[in-house]
Amino acid sequence: MEIPKEKLLEIYERMATIRQFEERVREEFAANRIPGFVHLYAGEEAVAVGVCAHLTDEDMITSTHRGHGHCIAKGVDVKAMMAELYGRATGVCKGKGGSMHIADLDRGMLGANGIVGGGIPLACGAALSAQVLGKDNVAVSFFGDGGANEGSFHEGLNLAGVWQLPAVFVAENNGWAESTSSDYSVAGADIAGRARAYGMRGEVVDGLDLFDVYEKAGKAIAAARAGEGPTLLECKTYRFYGHHEGDKQGYRSQEEVEEYRKNHCVIKNFRARTTDERALTDEELDEIETRVSESIESAVAYAADSPWPEPSDVTEDVYVDYKEVL
Amino acid sequence: MEIPKEKLLEIYERMATIRQFEERVREEFAANRIPGFVHLYAGEEAVAVGVCAHLTDEDMITSTHRGHGHCIAKGVDVKAMMAELYGRATGVCKGKGGSMHIADLDRGMLGANGIVGGGIPLACGAALSAQVLGKDNVAVSFFGDGGANEGSFHEGLNLAGVWQLPAVFVAENNGWAESTSSDYSVAGADIAGRARAYGMRGEVVDGLDLFDVYEKAGKAIAAARAGEGPTLLECKTYRFYGHHEGDKQGYRSQEEVEEYRKNHCVIKNFRARTTDERALTDEELDEIETRVSESIESAVAYAADSPWPEPSDVTEDVYVDYKEVL
Amino acid sequence: MSEERELTMGAAIREALHHEMERDSTVIVMGEDVVGGAGSKLPDAEDCWGGPFGITGGLAGKFGRNRIRDTPISEAGFIGAAIGAAATGLRPVAALMFVDFFGIPMDQIFNQGAKIRYMFGGKAKVPVVIRAAIGGGINAAAQHSQCLYSIFAHIPGLKVVVPSTPYDAKGLMTAAIRDDDLVFFLEHKRLMGSKGHVPEESYVVPLGEALVRREGDDVTVVAIAKMIDLALSAADGLEAEGVNVEVIDPRSLSPLDGRTIVDSVEKTGRLVIVDEDTPRCNLATDIAALAADEAFYSLEAPIKRVTPPHTPVPFSPALENAYIPSEDRVVTAIREVMAA
Amino acid sequence: MSEERELTMGAAIREALHHEMERDSTVIVMGEDVVGGAGSKLPDAEDCWGGPFGITGGLAGKFGRNRIRDTPISEAGFIGAAIGAAATGLRPVAALMFVDFFGIPMDQIFNQGAKIRYMFGGKAKVPVVIRAAIGGGINAAAQHSQCLYSIFAHIPGLKVVVPSTPYDAKGLMTAAIRDDDLVFFLEHKRLMGSKGHVPEESYVVPLGEALVRREGDDVTVVAIAKMIDLALSAADGLEAEGVNVEVIDPRSLSPLDGRTIVDSVEKTGRLVIVDEDTPRCNLATDIAALAADEAFYSLEAPIKRVTPPHTPVPFSPALENAYIPSEDRVVTAIREVMAA
Ligand SMILES: Cc1ncc(C[n+]2csc(CCOP(=O)(O)OP(=O)(O)O)c2C)c(N)n1
Ligand SMILES: Cc1ncc(C[n+]2csc(CCOP(=O)(O)OP(=O)(O)O)c2C)c(N)n1
Ligand SMILES: [Mg+2]
Ligand SMILES: [Mg+2]
């Protein structure tokens, strides 16, 4: 699959934005400026970006607790995201959601999710909307290797198979669910193979290679759009940081992490390949890095300068309309 | 697999008991002597009996809303069962359970179940008990084609795969879940094949042939006992009556039902084969039928003559011990 | 339209579904066997089921299987899908069949459906109706006889309606479908066949408005769903003893029209609540707590609650009859507060 | 044993688990990452997690992975398995991690675990403990900050305990494990690090016994879990104004020690309930309803409930602070009932 230069640049920018965003969130969190939990996506950028590169704002995705990457890949504004993490009124969810609940329907982002496996049925619903209304949109659900063991995975994929929904299920197999290895928790240790149980296409993807993700996701999404039903992709990937910030990671070695950072960094490798092939130049990419770094900087400044929500706002936005008396 | 004569007679008696029990329940229900819902197992006898023939009282089974057959196959007393259906104090559950909740732990019967798929995790628990305590018992879970679409199926089978539990999962594919065809509801239409998703053995069984069930269940149960982990069996079978009594069955033709009754009756076929092979004689089998018919008759008399539970019994048996004050 | 037109509650609900599907092409219906016969090879299998009470029978012939869909037995899957579809442009009516099955889709209902709007800062809406049958009295035992509405009323982000007449059922279903939030629409099994006047044209009974079903000034009885019948008949019986009972049907449990209840208690000074849901943390305690705060100074007697015991629902008629509140128990409670 | 021995609530719970696993070989522990490192190739990965608060860390080294098991993320699967195991000879302690996840295993909990004994006519028992973290105050947002105990208290067949001190946590966990019924053991996140005296030896705090944490005769305040701290500190503050507050910690929500509460209200004539669970059909309404019936003639003021609003839990500290009941709100409620 030939990727046009403009698209390559956009892909790089998205991946770089995710990486820099996450590195910065890490610092902000360590400095106690971000409350709650954060789960970082650094290392896995190729999956979100390689998939979302094929989607429009009308195509919907559902995401996970590790959702910053999906949000950025889908085009959610980083300023509004950072303000959300800060818990400010200017946040994309007005400070009500936080890291695990960032959403932006205008960008086709149907929510990060604090519930493992929670987004899978929701994505089926978004695909159902497209199907019932006769639109050619697709829905993509991202979830982890751990999430593939939830009942919602089974029920969602079976439903998508029965109705031949325009959906793509993207298992991000980063090897771990918290401290539990996917070799242990996924009986059979083969997520892509589970597609067969639903009469669905299933494919293993090198999630550390943007080009492999881009190609296979492209096919799956095109098939869904064409009315050829759902696909399950298992993207093998790696997370650079702990499960959440604060995780001591006693279940894997620091050498392993270093090895991945060094030799399987999706950004480094993308850069090496595109410049090798002379599709892009180092100058172009450096320029992007600089631009991204400025945008993250200004996102942090924006967040830090933003007002807190008003306490009275706590009871807003529960219902569209609720006629309680007394 | 050679089946000893004594076992053949026992198998016939169990199948005949189920058939006659169900036919009689049908009449009693039509005559308004049995309250609530009933779901009849007639036609599917070979599955419950062929599987349970390999089990002891210490091996546990979990069952479904269509549970009478499993209970009888596992050795639950038919008098106490009939009294339970009648809602009497002498019922196996003292009238508290009824058709959908018959249970008898002394016989290794961990309950019919009103929740589709509800018994699967429970069976994993019974298998876990055996494994933790180092006993060589097994647990078997019966469920329908419809039940194979519940999240509990996925979570239970995956767990059994991860822990290599001594469990056997028996999907009774009778073609329908209420009025919905399994060809429609099971994406991929292959339940046995779902075993692969859990790195588990999976096998299609002719559920209308006692001998096929007996052989394949025997192997699966022996493997579980030997510590070789779980198996999923998909038994293709057929129910002679509607989903529940009262179902008009607009989804299938009366001719089809007749065809099954005529040519795929597990009892007729068992009889034909065992007498053909001169393993058993018609006299022996007729004698069993008579004995069974007497036992059903006396079960009905017992039930009809039994007292109703006392109204004050309604608050008994909720807890082992509940120290509420006020 | 004739004043005499009578329908069962089930037919009234079907009529509302029919009207709304006609009126708005984004309304869809989904659930296990809501049509029936999916995958059957028979040409006339269409519409052979229609849900356990036949309510959605006949809709597929008119609206097609694109808009009314049989699902696999996967409550988390299809109710989650209904919620996802609602957030993206449809207005699904999802049938959970029996409310007792809520334990399977509950995460999708309470962590997703009920919270999406809030977590997303008000930038989404989830116009779903979840229909389910509630209540005992048909010897369906512990897993097919529960009420459980107290649990849904507990959860912020959900709305809960429980009609007790065919008229209200139609009007509340219409309101529920047009409502932009997630509404539980709970149908008492023993009311589905009860008949009453239902206008042919479409109309709305607003959510959050209680109905005074009978006026009286001695004691207020608040009763829910099938319990309304007991309350009304107890009231009729007590008339002879000179006791004037006011009977209130909340109709919506969330939002709850507390004003109507409190006003009534301020008038009567006495309150009995009849709730078929189990006694702890239920609607009866909710309404009692409301009155013990807001109508305290008017209260002349202890607030009595008539509910089943804190036990699962038993199967045997002999036990279930003892389990479900009886008219006798309602009468006794009213006499008790009158004697106080 | 020294009177000075202090442990955190988390350590107290771990000690109870340790004691009981030692005492009874049928006690097992299971849940996601309760040990940690399952499937890791590192030799020293054992016990690298121990649950979100490290409570079950260290147990595997002693008891082995046969008796303490990491599970896949399959709450219906492993909690159902715990229930099935309990009915067949084990006494599992299953960790649900956050109570917010109950929507996944709920069917197994309430239709199976809670009802098996009853449906089976008393011929089975289900000695399971389900541990879960509850409550807000750590900016964990809508899906990781709920209380939800009102839902479990609503269900017949379940027991629910909510300790507020390390001493009670250890004694109640011991009681819960030895109990033959299904017990929810709920651990407030903001209490896990709080310290208090805990004897080294094993002891039991019986289920169903409330504790009067502070005596007073002007007003009764019943508070749950973390809310006890607010109540005690409000009481201390009001002492100066000459208001004597009695503070009751129910400790068990089901069974509930209603006697202790009613006795207190009969003495004080005034009742305030502080509940961090959302306001509809919650423990606060349950206790208010109890008092409005059983202690009616002693009541001198409206019963006040202090709870969060009927909304999901917001993320931002600015909003969450406004959401969770504050000491100020408790003081205001007490002043209100005192002024009545
Ligand atoms: C239903 C549910 N169970 C458990 C958790 C706690 N939890 C949060 S993330 C996580 C691990 C998820 O692993 P995986 O799906 O592989 O995603 P990853 O973190 O690797 O991206 C767990 C157990 C949860 N949030 N929701
Ligand atoms: C969780 C749940 N969903 C739905 C139902 C209603 N219901 C009872 S039996 C049944 C069909 C079951 O089909 P299958 O599993 O194939 O078993 P069969 O009846 O064919 O033996 C349904 C939908 C239920 N009891 N529980
Ligand atoms: Mg993972
Ligand atoms: Mg079937």
What does this protein look like?
The complex is a heterotetramer, with 2 copies of chain A (326 residues) and 2 copies of chain C (340 residues). Chain A has 326 residues and is α/β, with parallel strands linked by helices. Chain A has 11 helices and 7 strands. Chain A has helices spanning 5-30, 45-52, 68-73, 78-86, 119-133, 151-163, 182-185, 210-225, 254-263, 266-276, 282-305; strands at 60-62, 139-144, 167-173, 176-177, 180-181, 201-206, 231-236. A 5-stranded parallel sheet of chain A has the order 1-2-3-7-6, sandwiched between helices. In chain A, strand 4 and strand 5 (180-181) form a beta hairpin. In chain A, helix 1 packs across helix 11 and helix 4 (78-86) crosses helix 11. Chain A starts with a helix and ends in a 21-residue tail after the last helix. The model of chain A has no long low-confidence stretch (mean pLDDT 97). Chain C is an alpha/beta fold. Chain C folds into 2 domains: 2-197, 3-Layer(aba) Sandwich (Rossmann fold); 211-339, Rossmann fold (3-Layer(aba) Sandwich), CATH 3.40.50. Helices cover 35% and strands 19% of the residues of chain C. Chain C has 12 helices and 14 strands. Chain C has helices at residues 9-23, 59-63, 75-86, 106-113, 116-119, 149-154, 166-178, 227-239, 258-268, 283-294, 317-323, 327-339, and strands at residues 6-8, 27-31, 68-70, 91-98, 129-134, 158-161, 182-188, 195-197, 211-214, 219-223, 245-249, 252-254, 271-274, 304-306. In chain C, helix 9 (258-268) packs across helix 10 (283-294). Chain C is globular. Chains in contact: A-B, A-C, A-D, B-C, B-D, C-D. Chains A and C meet through helix 5 and helix 6 of A and helix 3, helix 4, helix 5 and helix 9 of C. Bound molecules: thiamine diphosphate (2 copies) and magnesium ion (2 copies). One thiamine diphosphate sits between chains A (64-66, 114-116, 143-147, 172, 174, 176-178, 243) and D (32, 73, 75, 97, 101, 104).
